């Protein structure tokens, strides 16, 4: 890929343009935004020259009019628009087309055939998506964590998860191991099927636990299965519902129930349970500061997947784009969205950027 150079004065002007653009974007954000301060250790974006890609057999993500097509989940539109605005300011001639932001399921086919440079997803890819990708490309896509998921469902973004019980249930906290033993079978310590096994007494002691959640193939189900349940078989008592609303409606009518669903729904007939990684550990309900400090077990991420050919470096344009994403300015875009995603720490951002430097 061809590159071009800038004089020092041009770079200084571009840096100023970044600051002005960020100020303009931030000025559009209402005062009730998340009130997140990004990590001061994040590097300021220092743009590096990279030529606008040109349409061709090897660069299929560039449209005939020269614009760069981005395909993926629409819930990432706000942050992508912010990233793009800053990138265009520092790389004249680059244009983007976001008509392809139509859903998470569009990402893997587009990446497989190179018709998007990267793809935003609110969940990890699944086996059905990965098999054809690896067969055609020769290796799995690079998984890049761009932000922690949201803790509010009002903006219809990808969210962290929570464990809920009916408000009549006296239980207040669980460990992740206990949650796994409630929802699945096959744990070495056995399953948890009655509330008395969790220390409840009286009428609760022999009451059967009724676990609720989404099907295993969904975003929530896949995440819990892979990240927390070791892909074990679900409990015979497990009931599947298609979304958080349906799950929690059922739980609200069942004092003996327990469910995993989108965070931020405590209230009325529902009570959220504090979660710790182990007995005596830090118990959290997923407060914003806990997500920022990696202290909540059911935090998830906004993923951007990148295509990389076996034994080849990542597309220089893509790497430069992510240098912006993982800069202080890029993460400030994430922090500025009302009830939006949560920015990464400097350490997390550096680790994600480093993934793009490996060749395997």
Describe the structure in your own words.
- It is a single chain.
- The chain is built from 11 helices and 12 strands.
- With 360 residues, the chain is α/β, with parallel strands linked by helices.
- It has 2 domains: 8-150 and 301-355, 3-Layer(aba) Sandwich (D-Maltodextrin-Binding Protein, domain 2); 161-292, 3-Layer(aba) Sandwich (D-Maltodextrin-Binding Protein, domain 2), CATH 3.40.190.
- The strands form 4 sheets. It has a 5-stranded mixed sheet with strand order 8-7-9-5-10, sandwiched between helices. Strands 3-12-4 form a 3-stranded antiparallel sheet.
- Strand 1 (68-72), helix 2 (77-90) and strand 2 form a beta-alpha-beta unit.
- Residues 1-18 and 24-33 have low confidence and may be disordered.
